[in-house]
């Protein structure tokens, strides 16, 4: 049976890479090309003999006859640089040849085949890494007196293990990719795989290494000539020219410059080419990690953030509850090119827990971050208001936010382990926050930190305080973060997916902890989650977000017994917990959230909605009151069915 | 931390053997040279044989190596073929010079490079481009050329500093301080540039991590976040870079010592190379290797001190 595999073309190129088209890179390439061509075609380029003395012309500055002046014997400096390039560039070529031949071969075999050979290569590299290259090269020169080639070959030999280890790493990465296994299974010979599939993939990083090594080799070569250990007078060489110039520097300052500057230019050129190739690889990485704003193409038409009529006058005009600790009104968030969240409005009473639900990409986290002014770069609040205890935070300075963050509003996030500074102990990190928000002495703060760790029910608070973040389990880390969040005695805690990264039993414990902190301390909580189960378990009311809009807002029981937006319903039906309990096949909401910048004019959910009509797609839909405290952004609220049992109460017991 | 140190020291024992065996095997390839050096090129074969016998060069190479090793244990590295001075005495005089230059350059690089890197990480992209350009040129300018340019400016033209020579700090501390300014600066200018670049890149990377936003969410001051948290977390890579910088500086000091006419380890080794003075070269190789080993040990300990993951399990 013949099995064929479609192998990707690893050598696919799309024109000259951008980093190589940068002017500096082109200049660097030109300089090197010029130096090489000049060295080869030396007799054609200069009428002067680099070694014939013209004592009458000694110590001349640049002139029409001697473009770069002359040295102490009246020899033309330009001619000496052109001819001298031969020694230096041949030296570099020798070193690079050995470096590349040995390093690449050993590395690619070590990376692909592994085993004893790999261990030996790594061990040799360990030793070679710490070997003082200069002393080995000097020893070589002590034996092969003035033999520049021997020295440069030795340098290549000393550098090769470093390249081998680098290539080994790169090869292992490529080898792990599926298409290489496919090629192996399809019966390609090892040599073919190495040359046709692995080599092209690692070529670019290897060239970076080679370019940087060439710079080092030139430094060595010119250095040895400067020390008088390589090329012997009167033969021209760049290093020896600097050394000559140094001897007469008091008499003729100019003489040392041409050769010195040529060496600098050549090494800079090698490094620039290396940098350009490295940036090229960097470009690829950063291209996938650009911030939300930059990645969105031409959405100029959508720059208008606030769409009038998308919030009903009643909702907008609803008075701010005087007792509300946090009140967000008509909040719009966006980048320069596209809105991310539109017209979010909600408020939070002391001790209340509000859940914000939705799939990822709906703007939940952005809303949470906007409240404490920590939106990522390129994203900002474009309009609306965030009142904390009656103080406007929208447009506040860093200083004003500093007074609220931690002490007024605290936040815990999705990845507990990534939210702690890896270099400090848990105790140090809590103490720093306590002292930031109080005037406690160091000792008092330390005592306070232990009581906070006890309050989040960590056994052995003193022991935990001494630990570093990497010594904590996920659940412990989240408790520590809650303790840190409580350290400033905040009134509001924003918990962004606090249990997503934790396993189910720990999840339940953390939710229980949050619940008891609310009752004990009157802490108001904004709980961001994609999981209805978590929301049902903990919250008093829920805010459902879809593609940047609040689509439904209601007390928790109301939304569970009688959701008024098809999206809320669809999300509930796809909850794995519910599916498990009703023993049904897990349904999923068909389609996906439209990306930022590609929202439709009408209802954002229409494309995925079973009840959508033409009216839904025509114009923006307003958030309307359909029952007591129950708002929905749907013109067919009665069409939404009630979800199958079990009810939220059952879920919370589960 | 102790574990890291022990591991490093255990790894360095084979390194010492490799370096010493390598120099021995290489020099053993040319047994006639020392005799020629002493007697000149017209020496009779009999005289050469006699000299080789006195120096022990008629014995097999492994016997010579054993002899050298046992000498090493007793603190004896043999005598210079050229001056008959004990190698340990020659090196003892030159080691402080080389160490002064290396340590001085590291201190200046750190004191100048880290603040620049930190400051530029908080500023615009153009300051980063400036640092990139500086480190590019700093890395590319050969120490012998940079040293000459600095001498030209500060010694020959301005006359502020002595152009060359080492002054014994015990005799004239002020003179010593002035004498090391230019050589240290020559080594430290590229050092400061690459330290600034690494610090900037490290700071930018750390400042983009999740925990920085968490720190801000806790209301901590920008100063604490930058200097206490971000800097602390970026220093590990700077320390590693400094280790590589010290190893790279062994070529640098060799060149700089020659430019500034100082009898450091490097220039001693160069002279020994020219004179085929193998015992001195072997001794210098040993000292250079020990400098590298100590530098790496310091890097390991510092990294462990900075990074709890390296010192605790």
Polypeptide structure, described:
Chain A has 3 domains: 3-9 and 16-43 and 68-287, MetI-like (MetI-like fold, Orthogonal Bundle); 308-372 and 491-584 and 596-654, P-loop containing nucleotide triphosphate hydrolases (Rossmann fold), CATH 3.40.50; 390-490, P-loop containing nucleotide triphosphate hydrolases (Rossmann fold). In chain A, strand 4 (380-388) and strand 5 (391-392) form a beta hairpin. With 654 residues, chain A is an alpha/beta fold. Chain A has 24 helices and 12 strands. In chain A, the strands form 2 sheets. Chain A has an 8-stranded mixed beta sheet, sandwiched between helices. Chain A has a 4-stranded antiparallel beta sheet with strand order 2-1-4-5. Chain B is globular and about 85 Å long. With 313 residues, chain B is mainly alpha-helical. Chain B starts with a helix and ends with a helix. Helices cover 80% and strands 0% of the residues of chain B. Chain B has a single domain (87-311), classed as MetI-like (MetI-like fold), CATH 1.10.3720. The interface between A and B is large, with 75 and 74 residues.
Structure summarized in a few sentences:
The complex is a heterodimer of chains A (654) and B (313). With 654 residues, chain A is α/β, with parallel strands linked by helices.
CATH topology of chain B: MetI-like fold
Q: Determine the strand fraction of chain B and express it as a percent band.
A: under 5%
The largest beta-sheet of chain A arranges its strands as 6-7-8-3-9-10-12-11
Order of helices and strands of chain B: HHHHHHHHHHHHH
Rg of chain A, Cα atoms, Å:
35 Å
CATH homology group of chain B: MetI-like
Query: What structural class do helix, strand and pairing data of chain A support?
Result: alpha/beta
Q: Number of helical runs of chain B?
A: 13
* N- and C-termini, Cα separation of chain A: 53 Å
What multimeric state do the chains show?
Answer: heterodimer
Counting DSSP H or I runs of 4 or more residues, the number of helices of chain A is 24
Q: What's the alpha carbon Rg of chain B, rounded to whole Å?
A: 24 Å
State the separation between the terminal residues of chain B, measured CA to CA: 11 Å
Helix content of chain B: over 70%
CATH class of the largest domain in chain A: Mainly Alpha
Class from helix and strand fractions of chain B:
mainly alpha
The residue ranges of chain B in which pLDDT falls below 50 over 5 or more consecutive positions are none
């Amino acid at each position: 049976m013949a099995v064929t595999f479609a192998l990707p073309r690893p050598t696919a190129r799309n024109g000259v890479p951008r980093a190589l088209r940068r002017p500096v890179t082109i200049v660097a390439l030109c300089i090197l090309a010029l130096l090489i061509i000049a060295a080869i075609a030396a007799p054609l380029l200069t009428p002067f003999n680099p070694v014939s003395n013209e004592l009458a012309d000694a110590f001349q500055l640049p002139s029409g006859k001697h473009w770069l002046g002359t040295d102490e014997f009246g020899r033309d400096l330009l001619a000496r640089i052109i001819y001298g390039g031969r020694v230096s560039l041949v030296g570099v070529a020798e070193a690079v040849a050995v470096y590349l031949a040995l390093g690449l071969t050993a590395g690619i075999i070590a990376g692909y085949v592994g085993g004893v050979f790999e261990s030996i290569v790594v061990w040799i590299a360990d030793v070679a890494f710490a070997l003082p290259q200069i002393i080995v090269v000097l020893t070589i020169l002590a034996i092969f007196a003035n033999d520049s080639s021997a020295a440069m070959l030795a340098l290549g030999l000393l550098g090769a293990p470093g390249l081998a280890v680098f290539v080994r790493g790169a090869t292992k990465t490529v080898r792990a990719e599926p298409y290489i296994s496919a090629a192996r299974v399809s019966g390609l010979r090892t040599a073919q795989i190495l040359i046709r599939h692995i080599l092209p993939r690692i070529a670019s990083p290897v060239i970076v290494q080679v370019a940087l090594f060439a710079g080092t080799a030139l430094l060595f070569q010119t250095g040895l000539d400067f020390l008088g250990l390589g090329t012997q007078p009167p033969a021209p060489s760049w290093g020896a020219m600097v050394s000559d110039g140094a001897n007469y520097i008091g008499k003729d300052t100019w003489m040392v410059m041409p050769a010195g500057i040529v060496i600098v230019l050549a090494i800079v050129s090698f490094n620039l080419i290396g940098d350009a190739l490295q940036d090229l690889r960097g470009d690829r990485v950063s291209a996938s990690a650009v911030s939300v704003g930059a990645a969105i193409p031409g959405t100029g038409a959508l720059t208008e953030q606030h769409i009038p009529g998308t919030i009903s006058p009643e909702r907008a005009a609803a008075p701010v509850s005087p007792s509300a600790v946090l009140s967000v009104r008509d909040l719009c968030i966006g980048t320069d090119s596209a809105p991310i969240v539109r017209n979010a409005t909600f408020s939070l009473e002391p001790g209340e827990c509000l859940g914000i639900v939705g799939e990822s990409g709906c703007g939940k986290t952005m809303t949470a971050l906007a409240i404490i002014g920590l939106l990522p770069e390129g994203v900002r609040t474009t309009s609306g208001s965030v009142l904390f205890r009656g103080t406007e935070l929208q447009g506040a300075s860093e200083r004003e936010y500093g007074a609220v963050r931690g002490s007024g509003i605290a936040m815990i996030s999705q990845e507990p382990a990534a939210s702690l500074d890896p270099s400090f102990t848990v105790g140090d990190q809590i103490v720093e926050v306590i002292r930031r928000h109080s005037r406690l002495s160091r000792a008092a703060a330390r005592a306070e930190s232990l009581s906070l760790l006890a309050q989040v029910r960590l056994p052995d608070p003193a022991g935990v305080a001494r630990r570093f973040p990497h010594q904590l389990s996920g659940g412990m880390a989240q408790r520590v973060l809650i303790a840190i969040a409580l350290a400033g005695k905040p009134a509001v805690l924003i918990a962004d997916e606090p249990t997503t990264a934790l396993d189910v039993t720990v999840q339940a414990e953390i939710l229980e902890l949050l619940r008891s902190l609310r009752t004990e301390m009157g802490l108001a909580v904004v709980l961001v989650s994609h999981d209805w189960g978590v929301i049902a378990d903990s919250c008093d009311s829920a805010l459902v977000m879809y593609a940047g809009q609040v689509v439904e807002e209601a007390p928790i029981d109301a939304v569970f017994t009688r959701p008024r937006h098809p999206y809320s319903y669809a999300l509930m039906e796809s909850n794995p917990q519910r599916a498990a309990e009703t023993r049904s096949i897990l349904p999923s909401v068909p389609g996906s959230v439209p990306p930022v910048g590609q929202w439709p004019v009408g209802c954002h959910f229409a494309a995925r909605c079973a009840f959508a009509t033409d009216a839904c797609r025509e114009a923006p839909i307003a958030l309307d009151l359909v029952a007591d405290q129950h708002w929905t952004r749907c013109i067919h609220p009665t069409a939404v069915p009630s979800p199958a049992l079990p009810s939220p109460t059952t879920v919370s017991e589960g | 931390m102790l574990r890291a140190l022990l591991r490093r020291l255990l790894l360095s024992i084979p390194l010492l053997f490799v370096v010493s065996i390598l120099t021995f095997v290489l020099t053993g390839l040319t047994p006639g040279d020392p005799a020629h050096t002493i007697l000149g090129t017209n020496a009779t074969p009999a005289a050469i044989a006699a000299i080789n016998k006195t120096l022990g060069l008629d014995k097999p190479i492994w016997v010579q190596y054993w002899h050298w090793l046992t000498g090493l244990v007793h603190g004896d590295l043999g005598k210079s073929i050229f001056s008959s001075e004990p190698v340990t005495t020659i090196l003892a005089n030159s080691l402080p010079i080389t160490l002064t230059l290396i340590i001085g350059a590291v201190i200046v690089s750190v004191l100048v490079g880290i603040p620049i890197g930190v400051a530029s990480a908080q500023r615009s992209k153009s300051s980063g481009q400036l640092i990139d350009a500086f480190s590019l040129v700093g890395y590319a300018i050969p120490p012998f050329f940079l040293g000459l340019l600095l001498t030209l400016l500060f010694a020959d033209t301005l006359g502020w500093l002595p152009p060359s020579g080492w002054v014994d700090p015990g005799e004239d501390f002020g003179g010593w301080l002035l004498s090391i300014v230019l050589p240290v600066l020559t080594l430290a200018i590229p050092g400061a540039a690459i330290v600034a670049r690494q610090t900037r890149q490290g700071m930018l990377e750390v400042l983009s991590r999740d925990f920085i936003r968490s720190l801000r969410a806790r209301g901590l001051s920008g100063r604490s976040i930058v200097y206490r948290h971000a800097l602390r977390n970026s220093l590990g890579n700077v320390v590693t870079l400094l280790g590589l910088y010290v190893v790279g500086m062994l070529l640098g000091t060799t060149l700089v010592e020659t430019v500034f006419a100082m009898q450091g380890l490097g220039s001693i080794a160069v002279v020994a190379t020219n004179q085929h003075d193998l015992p001195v070269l072997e001794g210098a190789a040993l000292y250079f290797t020990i400098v590298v080993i100590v530098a790496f040990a310091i890097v390991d300990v510092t990294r462990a001190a900075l990074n709890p993951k390296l010192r605790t399990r």
